Amino acid sequence: MRVETGDRPMPGRSEVVVRVRAVSLSYRDLMILRGWYPLPVKADVIPVADGAGEIVAVGEGVERFTVGDRVTAAVFPRWLDGRFSVDYAAQLGGSLDGLLTEYARLDESSLVRIPEHLSFSEASTLPVAGVTAWNALTGGRGVQPGETVLTLGTGGVSLFAIQFAKAAGARVIATTSSEEKAAALRALGADDVLNYREEPGWATRVRELTDGAGVDHVVEVTGALGEALAAVAMQGEVAFVGLLADGDGLAPLDVKQLWLAGANLRTLAVGSHAQFVSMARAISANRIRPIVDRVFAFEDAPDAYRYYESARPFGKVVISVG
User: Fold this and answer.
1) Long-range contacts: 187-196, Cβ < 8 Å, 24+?
2) Alpha carbons 193 and 108: distance in angstroms, whole number
């Protein structure tokens, strides 16, 4: 990573210029650095898709926003609604320049207003982790009051999923690796917390906690699908969010287990602009606050990456741009 200085961008038609105030890191950013992100990444890209700031200039034809509006932006600017397709694959911080910059030029159609009760640092966590968790719980069969949701670990997606599930009236079972994190998960709203180090076959315990039925929803962020399939209920859903490794160390998927589970396995890629807007409304209505683990200064961005990679943070790692 290197710092470059250039002219402040000027907005074109239907574009705005945003003074970026904060960005946050997601596992996607580490995937890009390691070279195994599945979508195109352009050379010398400005990294990071997640960010928030205020509009400082508007171009001709901009109708929904004005100077001073506090905004963030969808990761896939062209994916407005409906199913994802390759036509919408252009993404901030990958094939398009991202938000680890003082000023960013963005199309009006990609913007989402920040919920009023959130700071810029909190709002910067929404585009990847927040929208992914929202899609995981609402983009398929949809979580219903009284259902049970299983979350894994203490990353940003899992922590958002707990808060969204509780707001929907669901019961949450969470897994983690320490009693300290377990206490924090309970404080966030998790009804039951399992230590996967002490109970490596935690799916059995999940079955016990659900009277043998299994959970209705699993937000699967690790790629180790065997335990998720063992824990999910008949006609439940496993939202397969992503991998925490390149897949080399993961056990192959047992198709017999998948069939016997009688559940739906759904892969997903963050979410659409429409899902982002719905999520933002839910966050506002329920006064949900994202969990920020640590904030780094703009000049310490490489240290933020190193911390995110090695420290296993509880929540999001944020870089304050100014």
Assistant:
1) 188/159, 188/162, 188/163, 188/291, 189/162, 189/163, 190/151, 190/162
2) 42
Partners of 318 in beta bridges: 24, 295
Are residues 261 and 238 part of one domain?
yes
- Residue 169: the pLDDT is 98
State the pLDDT at residue 152: 95
What residues does 71 pair with on adjacent strands?
Answer: 53, 113
For helices 273-286 and 156-167, give the axis angle rounded to 10 degrees.
60
**Dist CA 307 CA 296 (whole Å):** 10
Tokens of 281: 């409304």
One domain for residues 24 and 107:
yes
What's the domain range around 260? 140-267
Kindly report the pTM of this predicted structure. 0.94
Residue 321: name the closest of 102, 92, 46, 119 by CA.
102
Count CB atoms within 10 A of the CB of residue 18. 28
Q: Which of 241, 267, 293 is the last residue of a domain?
A: 267
Q: How far is CA 34 from CA 2, 37, 94, 95, in A?
A: 17, 8, 13, 16
**Would 8 be classed as within a structural domain?**
no
- Name residue 173's beta-bridge partners: 150, 192
Q: What residue ranges of the chain have pLDDT lower than 50?
A: none
Same domain for 149 and 235, yes or no, is yes
Give the sheet arrangement for strand 215-220, strand by strand: 192-195, 171-176, 148-152, 215-220, 232-240, 264-267
* Contact criterion met (CB below 8 Å) for 195 and 152: no
pLDDT at 269: 84
Whether residues 104 and 70 share a domain: the answer is: yes
DSSP helix/strand/coil, 192: strand
CA distance 278 to 270: 14
46 and 64 both lie in a single domain: yes
